[in-house]
Design brief:
This protein is an all-alpha fold. The chain is about 55% helix and about 0% strand. It has 8 helices and no strands.
């Protein structure tokens, strides 16, 4: 869902044109399997390369240098993924952080977070 959400967000904000998205192999209709045996879109996994391609398109558009912040503020509860669904059941922030850290790879394979790496960056 992250790929579809970012695709739509960039297109709706004018950061990416349909032509740019198609050129990058990001035709929305072709991203999701709509076959009779297909999983629901929320359960389908798309290659991380598609998400990275979308962020490259966003980074190459100088009109909205804060696009990452804007995307982070957008929340569509109907498209939340597995990790967001798990976090909704946490009793407090501490538990949510532990669940997030333990299951961050559900977002995409390159996501990594640990208290040690966060402390090293801030210190």
């Amino acid at each position: 869902m992250a790929v579809l959400d970012l695709h739509d967000f960039l297109r709706d904000r004018g950061v990416a044109t349909d032509a740019q998205l198609a050129e990058a192999g990001l035709d929305r209709a072709a991203l999701i399997d709509h076959g009779s045996d297909a999983l629901p879109p929320q359960e389908q996994r798309l290659p991380e390369a598609l998400l990275l391609a979308l962020w490259r398109i966003a980074a190459n558009n100088p009109t909205l240098p804060q696009i990452g912040l804007l995307a982070g503020q957008a929340y569509n509860p109907s498209t939340r993924g597995v990790l967001a669904s798990l976090l909704c059941h946490c009793g407090d922030v501490g538990e949510a952080l532990q669940v997030f850290q333990h299951h961050i790879a559900l977002m995409n394979p390159s996501e990594r977070w640990s208290p040690a790496s966060a402390a090293a960056r801030s210190g």
